Known about the structure:
Number of strands: 2
Helix content: 55-70%
Strand order of the largest sheet: 1-2
Amino acid sequence: MRWEEVVAVRPFVGALSIPEVHKSYNELHYRYMPTSSTSFRLSEQAKRCLTERAQRDAVSATALLERLIIEGVDNLDHPGIIYHGPGLARRAALAGGPDVWEVVARLRELQGSEEDRIEILAAETELHPRQIRTALEFAAAHADEVETYIARNEEAIDAGREATERRRSLLG
């Protein structure tokens, strides 16, 4: 079974809209992440690239620089992990594979030891056990972020089930 087929069984339907993401980001950033002033000297080329990209993404250069630093350090600390998605709704994923939270959610559904679960998931997908371990290591270092995506997905699944039941009850 390919990864896409496994995900189709439990798709991610809990994505936030862009206004919700901005709201969530701003709440987290300004409530829990104290800021401090730091000075950097950038080459003209780096400054131009940063400014142009920030304008394309409709964010400040400072916000973009912060995101690039955090994601860059994560990439160095967790080779094989990339970020994808729009603007502030970016999610950690395996390079060429699923989001990290999807891997963790599927591992939770399986039975057995950690290694047993990794082997089962590798057998039912095209993921190498090393990739699954990479996702698990990243998740352990970013547990709050991963738990948030898993919870949102579960909430969306529950809402979908409730809507289905309401439709069924209307039809009698």
